[in-house]
Design brief:
The chain has about 725 residues and is mainly α. The protein is built from 41 helices and seven strands. The strands form two sheets. A five-stranded parallel sheet has the order 4-3-5-6-7, with helices on both faces. It is elongated, with a radius of gyration of 32 Å. GO terms for molecular function: proton-transporting ATPase activity, rotational mechanism. This is TIR domain-containing protein.
């Protein structure tokens, strides 16, 4: 039977510059009728003619709502499925014409997808109704799973591997940034098959066989070492955790570590092929570090942390990142390794493991903060926020620049439509800023460079309030109120802020937000109107004390602190602990508990020092002249700054150096020693709530800023407003 397809194609081609969607549709319908005619068997040449005809037509025509779901596209898709089925069959090779059609169809789909992305029509177009076809995706996944099983068949098929790789790349481009599409069940089918490739011996052996001096990879290597891990590494759908779990459950961390062990000793000699392949593998591992549920697998494969630190400390990568502003394979590898470390630092236990690693050095990240690539520089700063102590900060000669760069990145994230900078959200930046501002020098820079207004914006700019942004912003401001200059700035220049706090206290249902808002007010109210005169309180006067002991701790250390509590209860001590005794956990209840306790156990750690609630507890205990016994509950922790001031000259009980029972016996000895003392110890001088010069610092000058004095009328109005807000605010729960 003679086909009219050539005639129809010629008609479209001759009118390609002026043809409209109304003119195209009936011709497409006629072509479809020909292709579906049971007496006619379409050939590869027929489909080649159709694709050649469609390519010159404007995508605006092809993706018009009246055209985009035309059956002609379904038939082209089905033809591609047939080619894939034939290609993956044993002992079957594609003809030259089929290989050409394979390439042409994929290129045509890529062009349409690119247009959809450029014109923001991915969600609205009918294209997805025929492209995201279950049968089509099952064919793709069958081919995917066959490649590692019969790798020898595909090794020398560069053109077909290129076409298939472009198809996977097109799907990746199509689903990126669109939750509706990337969470489609057919995308999960594809993701599962790619994960199987990455868990295969073929992937590992192919990577092991890369020549470190090779400048390029063949198409098979590009696919299995590049496209497959990249698809997973940049996938953001809800199935991401399923994919990462799949890698871990297949014991791939051990295999990936074998790769690092094999190649890292020669890292300074790597050329592009290996550098790019290791980068793609490392980018994938970032998400093992990101999810709490998959970090448990790292604990059985801690050498991976060694490998990341070795990568970050390698000379060739350091030289590259300090000089180039462009992304290349070296930059990408550095970025992936530092992202891996960053994803672990907010996990208290993993941060401890990193700091105890023999390859860990603060100098690595102090060097990387000078990177020319913003994303690497930003991650270095965020890691430094978690690992530098007060003395480290004091020794820096660029504190002003460090603070300004970090706040600049925060500002850019706040002004971004997605509320992120370099793929780092505002919330993550604030978490690290909260760690930074525990240091007095950083507080001074915040005040000196007038960045306080930026933090006020974090509280008042409603579009930023995703996740914990509002709570963390308020906690940062609360911590900053321990600085006299900033406290005066808040009272002098931000009177409307107190009105906003009132709205929060009335309208917010978030317990953490309420806690932080009231914490700010409590701090200001108690500074302006102390509950008791220091001279009226004596730490040795135990009469009328309701509790023997109060435990002040961060919930990050709750396991050991709750164990201490239970052992004290077993010995018949009357112990106050917030999870047991507070009805509503207000700061007023905390103050009452301190005044009603003979001894305060301060459980020292980095999270404790970062918490404004813990600082409020510890400083109130100090100014109330309670007897404080410091407990070390974080390995190798030594207090500095405000916490070092409070615990100076006191004997620490370290629960990390010995087993629990030994440390607990030392604690009991300390308690008994205090009770057996017969002499009254003269109370120390009252503590200034702001420690300008922490005890661990050398003497030196502290920068000052001019704060305009407020009138007595203004001060009275602010004080009355603060006290009114504090006294009338609803009870809250404090989450440390």
């Amino acid at each position: 039977m003679q086909s009219s397809i050539s005639e129809y194609c010629a008609t479209i081609y001759n009118q390609r510059q002026t043809i409209t969607s109304e003119q195209v549709k009936p011709i497409f319908d006629s072509i479809v009728d020909e292709l579906n005619d049971e007496n006619y068997h379409p050939t590869t040449d027929d489909y080649c003619k159709i694709i050649d005809t469609l390519k010159p037509i404007s995508c605006f025509i092809l993706l018009d709502q009246s055209i985009a779901n035309n059956e002609i596209f379904h038939l082209i898709r089905n033809r591609l499925s047939n080619i894939l089925n034939q290609w993956s069959q044993d002992d079957t090779s594609l003809t030259d014409r089929d290989e050409c059609l394979f390439r042409e169809i994929v290129d045509f789909f890529r062009t349409m997808i690119k247009h959809l992305r450029t014109t923001n029509q991915v969600s609205s177009s009918n294209f997805k109704t025929w492209f995201l076809n279950e049968s089509f995706f099952k064919t793709i996944t069958t081919t995917l799973e066959d490649i590692p099983l019969h790798s020898s068949k595909y090794l020398n098929q560069d053109q077909n591997m290129t076409s298939f790789m472009k198809l996977i790349e097109s799907i990746q481009f199509f689903q990126a940034g669109n939750d509706h599409i990337r969470n489609n069940p057919n995308i999960l089918l594809l993701l599962n098959s790619i994960t199987k490739c990455l868990c295969s011996s073929t992937y590992i052996e192919t990577l092991k066989n890369i020549d470190i001096k090779s400048e390029k990879r063949n198409e098979f290597e590009n696919f299995i070492l590049g496209r497959c891990p990249s698809f997973c590494a940049w996938f953001r759908g809800k199935f991401q955790i399923t994919m990462i779990d799949g890698l871990c459950l297949n014991n791939m961390l051990k295999s990936y570590q074998e790769i690092y062990d094999l190649f890292l000793p020669s890292i300074n000699d790597w050329e592009y092929a290996l550098m790019e392949s290791i980068y793609c593998m490392t980018a994938l591992l970032r998400y093992v570090a990101f999810y709490p549920s998959t970090r448990k697998y790292l604990k059985a494969n801690l050498k991976i942390i060694d490998s990341m630190l070795i990568i970050l400390n390698s000379n060739c990568l350091l030289d590259n990142i300090l000089k180039t502003i462009d992304y290349n394979s070296k930059t990408n590898l550095t970025d992936s390794a530092i992202s891996f470390i960053f994803n672990l630092i907010n996990d208290f236990n993993m941060l401890t493991i990193i700091k105890e690693n023999s390859f860990f050095s603060k100098e690595i990240f102090l060097g990387l903060k000078n990177a020319q690539v913003d994303r690497v520089k930003l991650h270095a700063l965020m890691i430094l926020s978690k690992i530098l102590n007060e003395q480290d900060i004091a020794n820096l000669d660029d504190i002003e620049e460090l603070t300004s760069v970090f706040m600049e990145y925060l500002s850019k994230a706040m002004n971004d439509s997605c509320c992120s900078f370099q793929d780092v959200p505002v919330e993550s930046l604030l978490i690290c800023l909260k760690a930074f501002i525990q240091h007095d020098e950083i507080k001074e820079e915040i005040a000196k460079q007038d960045y306080f207004s930026l933090l006020i914006r974090c509280v008042t700019q409603n579009n930023l309030h995703a996740g914990l942004v509002l709570q963390i912003s308020l906690e940062i401001i609360w911590s900053l109120t321990f600085n006299n200059r900033i406290r005066e700035m808040l009272i002098n220049n931000y009177e409307p802020f107190f009105v906003y706090l009132k709205e929060i206290l009335v309208n917010s249902t978030e317990e953490g937000v309420q806690a932080a808002a009231k914490g700010i007010l409590w701090k200001l109210a108690n500074d302006s109107s102390p509950r008791k005169s220091i001279g009226d309180i004596d730490e040795n006067n135990t009469s009328g004390k309701k509790y023997d002991i109060m435990i002040s701790y961060s919930h990050s250390n709750k396991d050991v602190c709750h164990q201490i509590y239970q052992n004290l209860i077993n010995l018949k001590y009357n112990v106050w602990l917030d999870f047991k005794n507070m009805q509503e956990n207000t700061l007023e209840s905390m103050a009452n508990a301190i005044e009603s306790s003979e001894i305060i156990l301060v459980c020292m750690s980095n999270p404790y020092k970062e918490s404004p609630y813990c600082q409020s507890e510890a400083q109130y205990a100090y100014t109330s002249h309670r007897h404080i016994i410091p407990l070390v509950v974080e390995n190798k922790y030594r207090p500095d700054g405000w916490l070092g001031f409070i615990c100076a000259s006191k004997v620490y009980v370290d629960f990390t150096k010995t087993d629990f029972e030994q440390a607990f016996q030392k604690l009991i000895s300390q308690i008994q020693h205090h009770r057996q003392k017969n002499t009254i110890i003269s109370p120390p001088s009252a503590m200034n709530h702001e420690m300008k010069e922490p005890v661990s610092h050398d003497e030196g000058t502290t920068s000052t800023i001019e704060v305009q004095p407020i009138t007595s009328e203004q001060h009275t109005r602010i004080e009355e407003q603060v006290k009114e807000l504090y006294c009338t605010s609803i009870p809250i729960y404090i989450a440390v």
